[in-house]
Amino acid sequence: MRFSVLASGSTGNAIYVATDRVSVLIDVGITGKQAEAALQTIGVNPADLSAILVTHEHVDHIKGVGVMARRYNLPIYANEKTWAELNGQIGTIKEEQKRLFAVGEKRELEDLGIESFGISHDAAEPMGFCFYHGKKKLSVATDLGYVSDRIKETIRGADAYVFESNHDVELLRMSQYPWSIKRRILSDVGHLSNEAAGDALTECLTGGAERVYLAHLSKENNMIDLARLTVKNILEEKGLTVGDDVHLRDTYPDRPTKLEEL
């Protein structure tokens, strides 16, 4: 199983996951042109894509969904409540391209196993995904107000995680954001802070050299080095050595991560 975080952050999110038989995008929160360029950067022909999976309907996750689906005749998988919101936002999609993927459902696309799980965020019915191929597992969990025990149990045991580390609490509190937005971000249906990400990861990681991609960083209320350092310190306080037991990886709003294989 191969994957790359094509873009991640407040301005747009997209992830590529593939086996030798199938390749999918998880969200396309960047323009179609940006998505094509990111795929080409990692040596992937967009014409070889198989499907798009949608976590939820916020624009930083769906901006290019309609364009990519129409351009490459791709099926779009989302749950029923998310589809109700998508229908007015992504343009005309042929009925045969509209596919349902319910929360908690497990299915296979060719040789790629996919499991969805519910998350806490202020969207219609947001989801995360776990991907399985052979004995390998990839867990994708962003846009989380908090990480429930059920989510921890679902994502635990992965070889790699794409995990939200959205903001530094103090930077957010001191920011120019209106209090209403600060309250939303800090709420149980908002986003995970660096500290919350580190705490949750300590309950999921086994120290088996897992790769953790810190994702969905706020442009205004976080910094890559700060997110990495905060999570590193929390993990090491719990006895996990970063660089040995765990490998932390950065993600970027404007370029893809290296195409990695599990």
From TrEMBL:
Q: Name the chemical reaction catalysed here.
A: 3',5'-cyclic CMP + H2O = CMP + H(+); 3',5'-cyclic UMP + H2O = UMP + H(+)
What GO molecular functions are on record for this protein? hydrolase activity
Q: Which residues form the signal peptide?
A: none
Under InterPro entries, the record lists: Metallo-B-lactamas, RibonucZ/Hydroxyglut_hydro, WalJ/YycJ, WalJ/YycJ-like
Q: Specify the superkingdom.
A: Bacteria
**What residues does the Metallo-beta-lactamase domain cover?**
11-216
What does the record list as coiled-coil region(s)?
none
Q: Which UniProt keywords apply?
A: Hydrolase
Relate the protein's function as given in its record: Counteracts the endogenous Pycsar antiviral defense system. Phosphodiesterase that enables metal-dependent hydrolysis of host cyclic nucleotide Pycsar defense signals such as cCMP and cUMP.
Q: Could you tell me what this protein is called?
A: MBL fold metallo-hydrolase
Q: What species does this protein belong to?
A: Brevibacillus gelatini
